[in-house]
C-alpha cells in the first residue's frame, strides 16, 4: 500500500542516520550506539513540518554539545534524498525540517487511487492476533460496562486489521464456575416461587427481572413437573435452558451494536477437554506449584508478583485463575496466535501480572499477552446517575442504551476517551443535533460534503486536475490531516487506544468545516473549482474510511 506520510518520515530519519554516520566518519564525534530517532510535529508552524531532538540525546554518548551535534547533522544532511526543502536548528539543538510545498499533493493522488483502502498498511505483516473483549458472564443482559468494552474491543480489532494484522474477534463465555452455580440457585428459587413453593431467595443471587421471566416461560412450557426433581439435576436443567436464551440475547444485542464475533469460546469446553487439569499438572511437573492448607498454589512470586495464587482449592475445585491460564495457553499454544489482546475491567488490573507470570511458567512469553484496562463510565441523564447492578436488577442494559441514543452515538461516545479514562456519558448530548455532539459533528461533515457534490452541476470532466492550485493555508492544512490517517491507525495499534481514531475523525471534520468556511468550492475559476472538488471528495473518502473503522454509519443526508 502507498503510505506517503510515513515514506516522507522514513526518508528524513534515514538521512539523519546517514548524516550521523558521516559525522562519525569525518571524526566530528564518536558514537557506539545510536538511540531511536523520533520525529514530532511542531505545535508552531514556523518550526517546520517535523522536528527531532536526537542531538539532545547524544551529548553524554559523544561528549559533544547538543548544538555542535545538530550543526554536524545539518551540515551532512542531503536534502536531495528527501522531500525536505529546509533544515534549521532551533534552541539548544532541536532540528526542524520544512518540506517542499508540493509533497502534500501526492496524498490526494493516494486517496483517489486507494479509495476504500486508503489508510491500510502492511505494518502488522500478517501477525495473528486474537482480540477477546466483553466476555460477560451469561447470567443476565449486557450492561453499560459491556457496551464500553464492546466499542473499545471492536475498534481495536478494526485498527489491527487495517494495519495488516490477521485478526480473530472472540467472546469468552464464562459458563462454568461459581457465578453459574449462583445463577442456577437463583433460577431454582424463582421457579419454585412461581409454582407456589415458599422458598427464600439466595442472598447473593441474581435478582434481575430476567430470572423471573425465564422461569415463567419455562413453567408455561413444562408446568410444575420439576418441583419434585432432585435439586442438583433441576438446577442443571434450568441453567442449560436459561444460558441458551441469554447467549442468544447477547448475540442479538451485539449484532444490533454492530459487533459480530468470529469465535464464541465456552469456558466449559476447557473442563470438558480436561485442559484445566492438564495445565495444573504441567505447572506442577515444572516445579511451579506447591501445596498448602490442602490447596495447590502457583509460585507467582518466583516471577516477580507480590503474592502466590491458588490454582485448586482445598475442595479440589479449580479456581477461575486456573481456567484463565488454560484459556490463554489454548489461544497462544494450541491455536497458535502470535498475540493475545484482552479488554478487561479496572477491577481485573491486578490479574495482569499474574497471567503474564503464568504464561512464562508454561514456557510461553508473557509479552505475547497485552491487556487493555478499561475504566467504568458514569451514565448521566438530566444530571442524574443511572445505577447498574446485574444482581440487583436495576441496571441500564446495552439494548436500553441503543434504543435511547442509537448504535452510532453509543460506539462513538465510548471511544471518545482512552480506555483507562473515566468519563461521563451524557445521554442528552448524545441525541442532540448540534456541533456540540461529536458524533453528529463528524457525520454532518460527511453529509455536508455529499450535499456539496450533489449540487455541482458543471461538467468538469474535461478539466485536468491541478492540485498545485490549492495554495490557501486552510486547504494545505486539510490535506496534511488527511495524510495522517495511516499513521494514526498504526499509533492506535502501538498505544492500544482506538480512541485516537475517534479524535482523528473530529479533527478531519473540524479542518473540513474551517476550509469550507474560508474557501468557496463553487467558483468562477473552473480549474480551481475542479481541484477543490477533488479535495472535498478526498475528505469524504477519509471520513467514510474512519467511520467504517469505528463501526459507525457515514450518512449521505442528515
TrEMBL record:
<feature type="domain" description="Arginyl tRNA synthetase N-terminal">
    <location>
        <begin position="10"/>
        <end position="99"/>
    </location>
</feature>
<dbReference type="InterPro" id="IPR009080">
    <property type="entry name" value="tRNAsynth_Ia_anticodon-bd"/>
</dbReference>
<dbReference type="InterPro" id="IPR005148">
    <property type="entry name" value="Arg-tRNA-synth_N"/>
</dbReference>
<keyword id="KW-0547">Nucleotide-binding</keyword>
<protein>
    <recommendedName>
        <fullName>Arginine--tRNA ligase</fullName>
        <ecNumber>6.1.1.19</ecNumber>
    </recommendedName>
</protein>
<dbReference type="InterPro" id="IPR036695">
    <property type="entry name" value="Arg-tRNA-synth_N_sf"/>
</dbReference>
<dbReference type="Pfam" id="PF03485">
    <property type="entry name" value="Arg_tRNA_synt_N"/>
</dbReference>
<dbReference type="GO" id="GO:0004814">
    <property type="term" value="F:arginine-tRNA ligase activity"/>
</dbReference>
<dbReference type="InterPro" id="IPR008909">
    <property type="entry name" value="DALR_anticod-bd"/>
</dbReference>
<dbReference type="InterPro" id="IPR006194">
    <property type="entry name" value="Gly-tRNA-synth_heterodimer"/>
</dbReference>
<dbReference type="InterPro" id="IPR014729">
    <property type="entry name" value="Rossmann-like_a/b/a_fold"/>
</dbReference>
<dbReference type="InterPro" id="IPR001278">
    <property type="entry name" value="Arg-tRNA-ligase"/>
</dbReference>
<keyword id="KW-0963">Cytoplasm</keyword>
<dbReference type="GO" id="GO:0006420">
    <property type="term" value="P:arginyl-tRNA aminoacylation"/>
</dbReference>
<keyword id="KW-0436">Ligase</keyword>
<dbReference type="InterPro" id="IPR001412">
    <property type="entry name" value="aa-tRNA-synth_I_CS"/>
</dbReference>
<keyword id="KW-0067">ATP-binding</keyword>
<feature type="short sequence motif" description="'HIGH' region">
    <location>
        <begin position="136"/>
        <end position="146"/>
    </location>
</feature>
<comment type="similarity">
    <text>Belongs to the class-I aminoacyl-tRNA synthetase family.</text>
</comment>
<dbReference type="InterPro" id="IPR035684">
    <property type="entry name" value="ArgRS_core"/>
</dbReference>
<keyword id="KW-0030">Aminoacyl-tRNA synthetase</keyword>
<dbReference type="GO" id="GO:0004820">
    <property type="term" value="F:glycine-tRNA ligase activity"/>
</dbReference>
<dbReference type="Pfam" id="PF05746">
    <property type="entry name" value="DALR_1"/>
</dbReference>
<feature type="domain" description="DALR anticodon binding">
    <location>
        <begin position="442"/>
        <end position="558"/>
    </location>
</feature>
<keyword id="KW-0648">Protein biosynthesis</keyword>
<dbReference type="GO" id="GO:0005524">
    <property type="term" value="F:ATP binding"/>
</dbReference>
<dbReference type="Pfam" id="PF00750">
    <property type="entry name" value="tRNA-synt_1d"/>
</dbReference>
<dbReference type="GO" id="GO:0005737">
    <property type="term" value="C:cytoplasm"/>
</dbReference>
<comment type="subunit">
    <text>Monomer.</text>
</comment>
<dbReference type="GO" id="GO:0006426">
    <property type="term" value="P:glycyl-tRNA aminoacylation"/>
</dbReference>
Amino acid at each position: 500500500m502507498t503510505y506517503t506520510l510515513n515514506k516522507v518520515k522514513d526518508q528524513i530519519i534515514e538521512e539523519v542516520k546517514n548524516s550521523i554516520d558521516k559525522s562519525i566518519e569525518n571524526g566530528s564525534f564518536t558514537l557506539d550506539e545510536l538511540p531511536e530517532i523520533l520525529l514530532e510535529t511542531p505545535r508552531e508552524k514556523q518550526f517546520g513540518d517535523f522536528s527531532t531532538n536526537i542531538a539532545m540525546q547524544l551529548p553524554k554518548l559523544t561528549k559533544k554539545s547538543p548544538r555542535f551535534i545538530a550543526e554536524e547533522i545539518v551540515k551532512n544532511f542531503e536534502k536531495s534524498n528527501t522531500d525536505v526543502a529546509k533544515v534549521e536548528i532551533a534552541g539548544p539543538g532541536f532540528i526542524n525540517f520544512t518540506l517542499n510545498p508540493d509533497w502534500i499533493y501526492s496524498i490526494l493522488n493516494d486517496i483517489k487511487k486507494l479509495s476504500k483502502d486508503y489508510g491500510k498498511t502492511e505494518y502488522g505483516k500478517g501477525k495473528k492476533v486474537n482480540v477477546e473483549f466483553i466476555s460477560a458472564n451469561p447470567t443476565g443482559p449486557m450492561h453499560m460496562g459491556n457496551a464500553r468494552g464492546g466499542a473499545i474491543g471492536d475498534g481495536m480489532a478494526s485498527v489491527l486489521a487495517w494495519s495488516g494484522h490477521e485478526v480473530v474477534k472472540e467472546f469468552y463465555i464464562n459458563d462454568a464456575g461459581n457465578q453459574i452455580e449462583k445463577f442456577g440457585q437463583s433460577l431454582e428459587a424463582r421457579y419454585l416461587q412461581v409454582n407456589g413453593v415458599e422458598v427464600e431467595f439466595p442472598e447473593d443471587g441474581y435478582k434481575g427481572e430476567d430470572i423471573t421471566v425465564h422461569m415463567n416461560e419455562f413453567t408455561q412450557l413444562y408446568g410444575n413437573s420439576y418441583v419434585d426433581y432432585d435439586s442438583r439435576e433441576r438446577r442443571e436443567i434450568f441453567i442449560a435452558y436459561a444460558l441458551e436464551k441469554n447467549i442468544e440475547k447477547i448475540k442479538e444485542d451485539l449484532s444490533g451494536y454492530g459487533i459480530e464475533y468470529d469465535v464464541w469460546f465456552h469456558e466449559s469446553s476447557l473442563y470438558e477437554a480436561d485442559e484445566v487439569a492438564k495445565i495444573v499438572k504441567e505447572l506442577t511437573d515444572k516445579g511451579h506449584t506447591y501445596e498448602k492448607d490442602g490447596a495447590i498454589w502457583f509460585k507467582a512470586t518466583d516471577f516477580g508478583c507480590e503474592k502466590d495464587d491458588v490454582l485448586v482449592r482445598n475442595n479440589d475445585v479449580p479456581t477461575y485463575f486456573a481456567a484463565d491460564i488454560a484459556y490463554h495457553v489454548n489461544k497462544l499454544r494450541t491455536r497458535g496466535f502470535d498475540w493475545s489482546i484482552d479488554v478487561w475491567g479496572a477491577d481485573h488490573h491486578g490479574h495482569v501480572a499474574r497471567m503474564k507470570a503464568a504464561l512464562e511458567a508454561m514456557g510461553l512469553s508473557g509479552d505475547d499477552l497485552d491487556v487493555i484496562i478499561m475504566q467504568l463510565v458514569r451514565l448521566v441523564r438530566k444530571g442524574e446517575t443511572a445505577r447498574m447492578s446485574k444482581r440487583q436488577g436495576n441496571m441500564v442494559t446495552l439494548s436500553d442504551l441503543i434504543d435511547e441514543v442509537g448504535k452510532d452515538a453509543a460506539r462513538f461516545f465510548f471511544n471518545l476517551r482512552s480506555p483507562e479514562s473515566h468519563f461521563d456519558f451524557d445521554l442528552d448530548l448524545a441525541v442532540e443535533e448540534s456541533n456540540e455532539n461529536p458524533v453528529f459533528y463528524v457525520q454532518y461533515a460527511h453529509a455536508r460534503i455529499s450535499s456539496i457534490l450533489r449540487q455541482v452541476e458543471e461538467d468538469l470532466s474535461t478539466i485536468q486536475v491541478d492540485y498545485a492550485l490549492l495554495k490557501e493555508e486552510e486547504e494545505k492544512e486539510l490535506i496534511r490531516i488527511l495524510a495522517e490517517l495511516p499513521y494514526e491507525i498504526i499509533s492506535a495499534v502501538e498505544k492500544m487506544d482506538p480512541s485516537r481514531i475517534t479524535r482523528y475523525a473530529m479533527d478531519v471534520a473540524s479542518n473540513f468545516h474551517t476550509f469550507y468556511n474560508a474557501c468557496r468550492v463553487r467558483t468562477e475559476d473552473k480549474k480551481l473549482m475542479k481541484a477543490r472538488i477533488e479535495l472535498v471528495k478526498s475528505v469524504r473518502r477519509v471520513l467514510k474510511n474512519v467511520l467504517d473503522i469505528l463501526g459507525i454509519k457515514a450518512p449521505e443526508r442528515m
